[in-house]
Amino acid sequence: MLLVRRKLDREMDEEIHFHIAEQTRRYVAQGVSPDDARRLAMLNFGHRESIRERGREARGWTWLDNLVRDTVFAARSLWNARGFTAIAVVTLALGIGMNTAMFSLLNTLLLRPLNFPEAGQLFRVYDSRPHQTEGDFSMGNYADLADACTDIAEVASFRFWGFTVSDSDRPADVPNALRVSVNYFNVIGLPPAMGRGFVPEDGVRQGVQAVVVSHRYWQSYFTADPDIVGRVIYLDGEPAEVVGVLPAANDIERILGPISIFCPIIFDATSLTNRIDPALGVVGRYRTAGDSSRLSSRLEALAHRLSTDYPVENSDVRFVVASLQSTTLRGVGRTMTLLLLGLSFFVLLTACANLTTLLVARAMSRTAELSLRGALGASRGQLVRPIVLELALLAALGGLAATLVWTWASDWLAARFGGANVADGLPIDARVLGFSIGVTALTAFLFGIAPTLWASRTDPGTVLKGSTRGTIGGTGQGRLRVALVSIQCAVALVLLSGSGFFIQGVRRLLTPDTGWQPAAVVSGVLNLASDRYNAAEPIIAFHEELTQRLRALPGVENAAVCFEIPLYASPARRAYRVEGRPPLPPGQDHLAYTNGVSASYFDTVGTRLLRGRLIDATDRLTSRPVVVINESMADALFPGSDPLGARLGLAGHDDPHWAEIVGVVEDAPPQTIASLPTTFQVYKPFPQEAWQYVNVVVRASNPALASGLPDSMRQVVAELDGDQPLINVMTAPDRNMQRTGVWRAINQILTAFAGLGLVLAVLGIYGVITRLVMRRIGEFGLRIALGACAADVSRLVIGEGLRMMCVGAALGLVGAVALERLLSSSLPAFSDGSTLAIGGAVAVLGLAVVAACWLPARRASRINPVVALRAE
Amino acid sequence: MTEKSELLQGTLDLLALRVLSSGPLHGFAIAQRIHLLSKEALSVEEGSLYPALYRMERKGWIEAEWGVSENNRRAKFYSLTRAGRRQLAIEQDSWARLTAAIGAVLKAD
C-alpha cells in the first residue's frame, strides 16, 4: 500500500509540474521572460506543499499516513528504551504464557468435562460408614443395589486387581488391572475401538477368560500387534483371550488412573453372600435425565432395609451419590488443583503489578516530553495516540513471546504432570488465553494511559524550567512511585515466603527419615500368580527361599517381604478394637495402617524397636496370632499402661481374630503431603496373612551399593520362578524422588517466579532511589560540604530504600501469613517452620533492597559538593 | 488579470464536469476552458482544482488516464464516466433550481 501511495504522489507531482510548465509557456507566449514567467506561474499556482496535502487528503489516505507515522515513532521510542521494553515483554510473556499453559494443563487433567457420552448422567455411589465415608461395596450389597435401582439407573462395578501377564514371546509383566462387571463399558459409554467389549457370558466362570486391553498397553506391551484380537495370553498362568482394545483417547485414566488391562468380575453364589469385605467401586448411569432425587430416596430405603436385615455388617450403612465429574477432583487432586490455580492467578497478579510499575515509571519519565508537545499545541488525543500505539506494539511483542513461552511450558508441564491423555501436547484453552490477555491488556492500557494523561497535566512551565530540584517526580508522582515500589516489595515478599514454605515442606517429603532408614533400601513388587500359589503354604515357602537367597547376595545385609514399605503408596487401613474394652460407637474404631511383614522386616527397613519384641521367625502360619504396634498407637490406646499382652482385634467382624500385642516400634508414618486420617500402625506376621502381591525389600550393607542391586534381585527371583517377574525395582531414595517429582516441579516454578518478582522489585527500587538521589543532589552536596562523610550519605540513601521497603514488607507479611494459613489448612506438612520461611523471605528482600540502593548510595557519596551546589 | 470571483463550494465540481462532458482534458486545460468559456470572468484557483479532481475521481464521476498533450508532453487526462454524466445532470438541475430561487427573491418587491 505504501508503494501505491508513493506512485500516486509521484503522479500528482508530475501533474503539478506539467500544469506549471504549461502556465509558464503561456506567459512566455504573452511576452514575459522565461524566468519571470516561471516565477509567475508558480506564484499563481499557490503553495505546492499544501496543495499536495489537500490532494492527498482528497484521496483519503491521510488516516493511514498518520497511523504509519505514529507506529514508526512508537517502535523507535520502544527501541530507544530497550531495557524497559525487554523487561515488559518478558513480564507479559511469562504472565500470559505460563498462566495459560498451567491452566490448560489443569483443564485437560481435572476440570474438563469427561468425554464419555452424556457424561452428566454418570454417577458414583459410595458405601459410606462413619470411619470411611467413600468406601467400596461388598458384593452382596452391590447385588442388592443393582436390583433396587434397576428402573432408575444401570449400575456397573469395578475393582482394582493385579495380574501377572505373560505371553509366549514376551517377558512377564504386572500391569495395572481392573476387574469390571460385564456391563461396565456399556454403562460408561466406551465401546472398544477394536474387537468387542464384554458380554454376559464372560461373567460366568468358564475355561478361557475374556480380556480387554487399553490402547497404550496394546502399543507398548503388545507392540501394536495387528492380530491382537483373539490372541491368547496368560493371566496368572491361566489362559485368557484378548477380545478387544479400547480407543486411544478416553478418560478412564482421569477417574481411575492408568489401567492397562480389564477383565470381567465373576459373580457367583458364594461371593454374593459376602457382606463384609468392601470390594467394589460402583458407577452408574441414569436412564432418564434428572433422576437424582429418585435415586437418593431409593438408596435411603435400601440402606434402611440392609441395616435391618444385616445388622452386624450393615448397621450404619449410608449410600452417597456423587456425579462422576466431581470425582476427578477428589483428594490430593483437589488440593493440587487449588494450589496450581492459585499459583497461576498469583503469577498473573505479579505480572500485572510489575507491568504497572514499569509503565508508570516510564510515563513519569516522559513528563517533560509530553509537556513540551502539549505546549506546542498537541491535543490530548495526539499525545495519547503514540502511547496507545506503543502499548499495542508492546502487547504484540509480548503476545508473540507468550506464544513461545506457553508452547514450551505446556510441553514441559504435559511431560511432567500429564498422563496418556496429554502425550501429544496440551490443547490451548482459548478461554484462559483470552482471560490472561484481557487482564494484562487491561492493566497495560489502564496503567499506561492513565499516568500519561495525568503526567501531561503537569504545568509545562515548571517542568520545562528543567531544574533537577524541581517538580520532576514531584510529591504527587513521587508518592505514587513509592507506593508502587512498596506493592512490588509486598508481592515479592509473599512470593518469597510461599517459595520458602514449599521448599521446607518438600524437603521434608524428600527426606523421609522419620522412623526408618531409607538410604540403603531397595524394594520391588512381586505378584505370585494364582495357580501355583493359591494357598498360604506355597507363598510362604517361596518367600522364605527368596529372602534366604537375597541375603546371600554380595552387598546385601538383610531382606524381607511385606505388604507395604514405609512410603505407603496404597496402605491397607483397618479398624481395630481392644479386647476387654466396651465396643466403641460406630466411627470411633481405631483405624490403623496394617502391614503384614516377614521376620527381619524391621531390621531391613530400619525401624527401631521400643518395647517387647519384633515379628520374628517364631511367628509362623500356625503359631499364636501376634501384632506389633507403633508408638503413637500405644500411647493413644494404652496411656500410662503397658500395651504388651493386651489383645487387638478387627472391629466390625464376627470373628475379630484377636492377636496379642508383643512389641512397640517407633512411628514410621506414610510420607504424604495431604493430611492423614490416622497415625496408627499395626504390623502382623506375613505368614499369618500371606498375600500374593507383596513388596520385596532388601537392605544393602552400604548405600553406595544399593543402586547395583535391582538387577541381581531380579535375577534371583527369576531363578526361583521364571514366570514371576520382580517389577518396579528401585532404591527407596529414588522412589521417593519419583513420588515427589510433582511437588519439586511446583517448587521450581514457584522459586523461579519468586526470583522474577524479586528482580523486578530490586529494579523498581533501584530506579526510584536513583531518581531520589538525583533530585537531592543539592542537598547531598550541601551535607558533604558541611562535613558529612561518604558513609553517612550512603547510610542516608540506603535508609530511604529500607524505609520504602518496610511499608511493602508490612503488607507483604499480612499476605504471607494468609498464604501460610491457606496452605497449612489443606497441606499440614507446610505448617512447621513457617516462621523461619517468612523470616528468611524478609531477610532476602532486605538484602536485595540494600543491593539495589548500593549503587545510587555510592554515587551520592561521591558527589563533588562544589559541582553539585553550582549546578542549579 | 481579471478578478477571481469566489466560486460557491461545489460549483467547481459542476463546472469541471460540464467542461469534461465534451471530451477528455488534462487539468490545465480544464482550468483554461473554464476561464475561456466564462469569458474570462472565472479563474479557477489551481489549489482547489486538483484536490477537487481527485475527489471526483474517488467518487467515480471521472476517470484518469495518462496520455500525450498537444506539445508531446506526458499529462494526465480526465474523462467523464457514466456516473459522472448522471451527476452532471443532477448538478445542473439543482443549479437551475437554486438560481431560479435566488432570482425570485431578488425580483420580489
Question: Summary?
Answer:
The complex is a heterodimer of chains A (872) and B (109). Chain A has 872 residues and is α+β, with helices and mostly antiparallel strands. In chain B, helix 1 packs across helix 2.
Describe the protein's topology.
The complex is a heterodimer of chains A (872) and B (109).
Chain A: H1 2-30, H2 34-45, H3 48-59, H4 62-80, H5 82-111, E1 122-129, E2 132-135, H6 139-148, E3 153-162, E4 165-167, E5 170-173, E6 176-180, H7 184-188, E7 194-195, E8 209-213, H8 215-220, E9 232-235, E10 238-245, H9 252-256, E11 261-264, H10 269-273, E12 281-286, H11 292-309, H12 311-314, E13 318-323, H13 324-327, H14 332-365, H15 367-375, H16 380-417, H17 430-455, H18 460-464, H19 475-510, E14 521-527, H20 536-552, E15 556-562, E16 572-578, E17 590-597, H21 601-605, E18 609-612, E19 626-630, H22 631-637, E20 647-650, E21 659-665, E22 681-685, E23 693-700, H23 709-720, E24 726-731, H24 732-739, H25 741-775, H26 777-785, H27 790-826, H28 834-861, H29 865-870
Parallel strand pairs in A: 6-11, 8-10, 17-22, 19-21
Antiparallel strand pairs in A: 1-2, 1-12, 1-13, 3-6, 3-12, 4-5, 4-9, 7-10, 8-11, 9-10, 14-23, 14-24, 15-23, 16-17, 16-20, 18-21, 19-22, 20-21
Helix pairs in contact in A: 1-2, 1-3, 4-16, 5-14, 5-16, 5-17, 6-11, 14-17, 14-19, 14-25, 16-17, 19-25, 19-27, 19-28, 20-23, 25-28, 27-28
Chain B: H1 11-20, E1 25-26, H2 27-37, H3 46-59, E2 62-68, E3 74-80, H4 82-107
Antiparallel strand pairs in B: 1-3, 2-3
Helix pairs in contact in B: 1-2
What does this structure look like?
The complex is a heterodimer of chains A (872) and B (109). By secondary structure, chain A is of the alpha+beta class. In chain A, strands 1, 2, 3, 4, 5, 6, 7, 8, 9, 10, 11, 12 and 13 form a 13-stranded mixed beta sheet that branches. In chain A, strands 16-17-22-19-21-20 form a six-stranded mixed β-barrel. In chain A, β9 (232-235) and β10 form a beta hairpin. Chain A starts with a helix and ends with a helix. Mean pLDDT of chain A is 78; it is low at 467-473. Chain B is of the alpha+beta class. In chain B, 56% of the residues lie in helices and 15% in strands. A three-stranded antiparallel beta sheet of chain B has the order 1-3-2. In chain B, a hairpin with a 5-residue loop joins β2 (62-68) and β3. Residues 1-6 of chain B have low confidence and may be disordered. Chains A and B meet through α1 and α3 of A and α2, α3 and β3 of B.
